[in-house]
Design brief:
single chain; alpha/beta; Rossmann fold
Length: about 250
């Protein structure tokens, strides 16, 4: 069950964080995995490819390399992203907005555009990484959160267009994850802040996010498309706490 044996997968942003966890999970499930990143490193057992997903020519070349080497391409995970948080609209620069969308949105769009060229006629799997902040509004998310909201809607549009090919397109919306980008910050205030507001009371491990990608990449998920699956401990379901003072005992509703 959930085997990826004889499947070929490409994972962008696969050198660290969630992407690295996805690569490990896919390898364990039996897939042949190509990891695309700006750095030429990959999990042992995967093939590292160097490229910038914001450049369409890089995306085409790297997908073609994977497909030519193996003779097929079954799964494409558009995961690479940058995360400029803490930027109010008043402080947003043209350069920040442009670069965020070039990587986070254009990179996904290029993957969606070109992956079908190399996939079997019987279909394939495209899985995009969005975020819980692409589902709910947050302050100071003028670039990152807005870009992830775009990925959420891009996923729906792509699922409709590619359905005649039998290619499913879905997205995973992680909550805050214990990746080096979070844990390497000394006394990072984000960790307790998010944990206190998450119904399950903690942040996610990268492996927990990767397991959701594994499911959507598998044959068992063949009838799921156009979905953005939150893997966030329940944070987008609603408030974990609703602390209010006791009402005035003398108040009587009319």
């Amino acid at each position: 069950m959930f085997s990826l044996v004889n499947k070929v997968a490409v994972v962008t942003g696969g050198a660290s964080g969630i992407g690295e966890a996805i690569v490990r999970r896919f390898l364990k499930a039996g897939a042949t995995v190509y990891s695309i990143d700006l750095v030429g490193s990959a999990v042992e057992g995967a093939t590292a490819l160097v490229g910038d997903v914001s450049r369409e020519s890089d995306v085409v070349t790297l997908l073609e390399v994977a497909a030519v080497k193996t003779g097929r391409l079954d799964i494409v995970v558009n995961n690479a992203a940058i995360q400029p948080l803490g930027i109010a609209f008043a402080d947003l620069t043209e350069q920040t907005l442009r670069r965020t969308f070039e990587v986070n949105v254009h990179g996904v769009a290029f993957g969606v555009k070109h992956a079908p060229r190399f996939m079997p006629k019987t279909g394939g799997r495209i899985i995009n990484t969005t975020s819980f902040v692409g589902v709910i509004g947050i302050p100071l998310g003028s670039a990152y959160a807005v870009s992830k909201a775009a990925v959420t809607h891009l996923t729906k549009c792509a699922a409709i267009e590619l359905s005649p090919r039998g290619i499913t397109v879905n997205a995973i919306a992680p909550g805050t994850v214990l990746t080096p980008a979070v844990t390497d910050i000394p006394n990072n205030p984000e960790i307790p802040f998010v944990a206190q507001r998450t119904p399950l009371g903690r942040l996610a491990e990268p492996s927990e996010i990767a397991s959701a990608f594994h499911f959507l990449a598998s044959d068992e998920a063949a009838y799921i498309t156009g979905v953005t699956l939150p893997v966030d401990g329940g944070i987008v379901a609603g408030w974990e706490r609703y602390d209010l003072p006791d009402p005035d005992p003398t108040f009587v509703m009319a």
